[in-house]
Amino acid sequence: MSGNLLSIGKTGLYAAQTALATTGHNITNANVDGYSRQGVVQATSTTMEYGYGFVGTGTKIAEIKRYSDDFLNGQVRTATASGASLDTYYSQISQIDNLLADTTAGLSPAIQNFFSAVQDVTGNGASVPSRQALLSSAESLASSFQQIDARLEEIDAGVNTGIETNVNLINTYAKQISQLNAKIGSYGSTEARQPNDLLDQRDQLVMELNKHVKANVTVGSNNALNISIGNGQPLVVGQQAFQLATMKSPTDLTRVTVGYATGDKVVPLPESALSGGELGGLLEFRSGTLDRVQNSIGRLAIGLAQTFNDQHKLGIDGSGQQGKDFFVQAPAYVAAAADNDRTSTGKIGAVVTDPTKLTDSDYKVESDGSNFYVTRLSDNQKTKIEPYDPAGTKRSIDGVEFSFSGNAASGDNYLVRPTALGASNLQLALSDVSGIAAGTPIATAAPIANKGTGQISAGSVSKDYFTAGPSLPVTLSYNKDSGNLSGFPAGATVTMTVNGETTTHTGGSAPFAANASYSFSGVNVSMSGVPQTGDTFTINANTAGNADTRNIQALGAIQTKNIFNGASATLQSAFAQTVSTVGNKTREVQVNASANDSLLKQVQGAALDVSGVNLDEEATNLLKYQQAYQAAGKVMQIASTIFDTLLSIAR
Description:
By secondary structure, this protein is α+β, with helices and mostly antiparallel strands. Helix content is about 40%, strand content about 25%.
């Protein structure tokens, strides 16, 4: 019996010793990230049957239990991935928000200064200093557009670097997790015999992985964790780790994208598929904000350049010649994918024709071998180009004239960014003040000898004037009996507009009506008052181009002209809308990040309630297991005393 008692005491001693070691392990690792509290689970040893009943044989260690909740850990991983994505998005978009909101050195004051210089020329058209100041202000405005675009390009380069860094880290974590899967699997799948510290290390690596990309975790065979990302692409399967890779965009070599490595090939992954973590935040920021802001600023530059150029070419410069382009307008960015069929003869072109219809979106053009399709990437609206003539087909979409020709192979695709280069390529086209077309090419007059009160407006011209204008002078004569104005060019069609109603007339005459406007051969005039029979009105070529400022006045009016968003927004209001959109998005991301931070703390707290080490509790356990150790030792001491007594009796 003493031998049995000695064995019982020994099992209690070993159990208490193991519990003390486990408690000490908890205490020393309490501040280690990812460590889960461990506890000794004891069980009763097999009892022995005697005639009078069953006698216990002591205790045994059933398992060293690791306290961890997979469901709560999953919530922490999800919140971690979301928080990292939002924090990354906010740090990036804040740069753009600060850039656009600068009221002293940003784009808004440059626009205001430019149109102030235009107004100065309006007040003194012959002043060379005023004209020189206008050119200087135009150069400053173009420089402001270029500087903003250059800063956006710097941010884009930072995004590229961030993507490469995150992909490298993701691959490193994937490899380490697969290695831990192998080590953990080598210990077998017995639930009561788990390498707890290795499990903690693996879970912590998965948590770190979620800081870079959202990882979906499933339990595989032999205690392995299988991890997938995106649309189900496997990253870790058992002991095998797969790899991501960075690659240049097939349609933009300055853009880094993410691909999935399969063998010796890299398959591009859709950017929208990689959500969560820093990588997801960078990709979402680039496509959702950076690209659109760059396109929006470019749209403003192109709209300004085209509208200003169109009006400037309706005037005459100091030498009486038709005005030329005031600004250099940027071309649209069009690129064929690098992996298109090399035998394909398909060609794509794009030219901005109507700034009022421009969007901030990019476009993807693709071919099925027979037809072309244009997809607006902002909302994936697809337009089929039909009928299609390989000799050449044009189609206007969102203010952009797309041109298609040749025979493209099935799968060929092209990227079209109509406004992306608008800000970076905006430049002043004029280099001499004499080239400023401040005047209008026609001048009108009503002789003093006229008997009535009829008056003719100063007049303006349209672009047709410079290709099909009338021979000047044109003298219009009024006849009260017929009620007509005669003297219009015989072969011209006169368009008359009164109170919004338009009629056309030929034969060199048209009815007179007060406050009516008349357009013919690119000339536009309006009449007012009450003329008398024989009253005449002349339209001559303008010979006072230096002093005339009618065209520069029309150029100044562009500041308040609605030329964007379906002719509902001015240059300033369209820019303000961009600033507001970025500001609202910045605030939205900030609020969401703050809310997610609160959620993360809550789920982390819930998870730590299960797996965290409480030092007060462990200190209590030390005392408890110390007493158990001492008591077990006392049992062994008593067993030894009994054994010695038995030996003495035997002597």
